[in-house]
Structures are given as structure tokens and as C-alpha cells.
Design brief:
By secondary structure, this protein is α+β, with helices and mostly antiparallel strands. Helices cover 42% and strands 17% of the residues. The protein has a three-stranded antiparallel β-sheet with strand order 1-3-2. It has one domain (10-60). The N and C termini lie far apart (49 Å). The chain has helices at 13-20, 24-33, 51-60, and strands at residues 10-11, 40-43, 46-50.
Length: 66
């Protein structure tokens, strides 16, 4: 039996896309090449990220040149 992941403070794909500001394709590419943290399996057909993981990833990103 796999451990249950609490869905509290979890961000689903649409939430992550809004928060990070990229397309679904870019998010998939980042996950594949290790640029973005891997998602946790929440159910048979759902994935998500703990909010604090996404927040830490965003905080650690270098600022884009304006």
C-alpha cells in the first residue's frame, strides 16, 4: 500500500501553471530535464506539488533581466 499524500497545501497543475507563468508543455519539459521539482502522485489520475516546494523553487530562481 502506498502512503497517502495530504491534499492540503497541494498545488495541482493549473495552479502551478498560473503561479509559475509557463505553458503546460514547458512545465512538462522542465520536469523531464530536472529543472522543476517532480510532482507527487495524489491519486490514480492526479499529481500535485506541495505549495512550499513551488514557493521555494520560485524564490531560488534567478531574477530575469528587465
Amino acid at each position: 500500500m502506498s502512503p497517502r499524500v495530504s491534499t492540503e497545501a497541494m498545488l495541482r497543475v493549473p495552479d502551478v501553471l498560473d503561479r509559475v507563468g509557463v505553458s503546460r508543455r514547458t512545465l512538462c519539459r522542465w520536469r523531464a530535464d530536472g529543472t522543476f521539482p517532480q510532482a507527487l502522485k495524489l491519486g490514480a489520475n492526479s499529481i500535485g506539488w506541495p505549495r512550499h516546494i513551488v514557493d521555494e523553487w520560485l524564490a531560488d530562481r534567478p531574477a530575469a533581466d528587465a
